[in-house]
Amino acid sequence: PAQIVWFRRDLRVRDHPALAAAAAAGDVLPLFIIDPAFEGAGVPRSQALRLALEALRSATDGALVIRRGSPEQIIPELVREVDAGAVHISGETTPGGRRRDARVARALEEFDVPLVPTGTPYAVSPGRVRKGDGDPFRVFTPFFRAWREHGWRAPAQMPERWRWVRSIESEDLPEERETDARLEWAAEPQALKRWQEFLEEPINDYDAARDRPDLDGTSRMSIGLKFGTVHPRTLLADLEDAAPHRSPAARQSFTRFQAELAWREFYADVLWHHPASAWQDYGDQLRAMPYEEPGEEFDAWRAGRTGFPMVDAGMRQLLGEGWMHNRVRMLTASFMTKDLHLWWPHGAKHFLQHLADGDLASNNHGWQWVAGTGTDASPYFRVFNPVLQGQKFDPRGDYVRRWVPELRHLAGAAVHEPWKHEDGYSHGYPQRIVDHAEERREALSRLEAAKA
Ligand code: FAD
């Protein structure tokens, strides 16, 4: 009988265990459901989804079926229509996704058709790696060690020839959205091409270059990983194959890259065990912290008009490109939580709206890490200095000039301190909205009060 593969965060045909399982059992009906729940996503993520689906439609030789509506209605209808033997999925691990899958499994019970999960969007499925006593990890480094020891499967073998079910009509792809965001790596072939190019050479310097937003020193795999157009297992296997042929310094970069992939897995594990930490403080340490309500300063932060060049460059990169460099994600998040004294979910929501790679687990726990409310809590008293961060990680000022045209007339690192230059504000760049030294003191005194 026909096998339905319901695609979600796994929009690819390579290294896809659920698709392989379906193909081994019969003809495959590839399905994607545009769930009304997805409509909250911003323009970059919606358009990225469209690109990923276009590629999936070609990869399935046009057989991909698109439907709109609630999965627990659509799937039983299709099961009846094609007399399907099973519905295959990559297991979902987010709180909302798990609830939805449980509803679909229940709706399928009356047809006696199983919802079969094979694999997840992670190399090691969330919930698998645990401490000796069975408890989940709360700190990254021991998680990373245990995760490596646990290991992962080899990439899935896919069939040489596909047999698709073709008798079913499809609705249209999601509509095309106008955006300047950089989304080309959302589709499977482009994501793999980018990865091969990165693996060829740039990855050798990753350890040093990854902190420099002025360079193209990171993989840009986050968007492919978000939509599952690449699987981390594929990346990990390629790293393993390439490592023996590289220098010791390059191998250090490989380990660093592996650790960054493990951060993604760690945060998914944290969310799996603590679904409430998606939108509430993970830890109790700052429960009594007094916060401000978002107002004009929050608006200035969102628009990239705080008067702090490195912060503004980051916020404008987010709006322009649908992506922000990790170093600057940390800095802008620190500025919102510690200089403006706002609770982290306000910023997390804004990021999710605009990031093409916006991911509940990585984003919201990344925010909590910076805010000092999360796992591994970075000590709350570590407040990023926006000027020093700029001078250190954008030493020539190129990143700021790329995103802040009002400062392009300043040469080199001068862009980081327009207030020191007579013509610093001659092209309309805004004055600083706060005094960083003062807000740092304020953040620390709030902390003392919260602890007392
Ligand atoms: P690379 O440096 O090439 O890293 C390779 C991969 O490792 C990334 O694609 C990503 O999957 C993973 N990774 C790297 N760093 C982290 C990290 N700190 N946490 C989790 N995974 C990581 N990442 C997202 O994918 N989606 C988000 O919504 C998101 N929001 C973030 C919000 C904040 C406040 C912070 C501090 C970080 C956030 N990150 C998020 C993590 C990180 O910034 C991005 O994964 C990274 O910038 C993506 O670029 P890249 O693929 O070139 O990264």
Structure description:
It is a single chain. The protein has 452 residues and is mainly α. The protein contains 18 helices and five strands. Strands 3-2-1-4-5 form a five-stranded parallel beta sheet, sandwiched between helices. It is globular, with a radius of gyration of 23 Å. Bound molecules: flavin-adenine dinucleotide (FAD). Flavin-adenine dinucleotide binds next to helix 8, helix 10, helix 13 and helix 15. This is Deoxyribodipyrimidine photo-lyase. Belongs to the DNA photolyase family. Residues 1-116 form the Photolyase/cryptochrome alpha/beta domain.
Question: Key features?
Answer:
452 residues; mainly alpha; Rossmann fold; Serine Threonine Protein Phosphatase 5, Tetratricopeptide repeat; DNA Cyclobutane Dipyrimidine Photolyase, subunit A, domain 3; five-stranded parallel β-sheet; 18 helices; 47% helix; binds flavin-adenine dinucleotide; chromophore; deoxyribodipyrimidine photo-lyase activity; flavoprotein; Rossmann-like_a/b/a_fold
Give the helices and strands, then pairings.
Layout lengths: L2 E5 L9 H9 L2 E7 L8 H17 L5 E4 L2 H12 L3 E4 L5 H15 L5 E3 L22 H11 L37 H13 L5 H4 L12 H6 L4 H11 L5 H26 L22 H8 L5 H13 L4 H14 L4 H11 L5 H12 L14 H8 L4 H6 L32 H16 L1
Parallel strand pairs: 1-2, 1-4, 2-3, 4-5
Helix pairs in contact: 3-4, 5-10, 10-15, 12-13, 13-15, 14-15
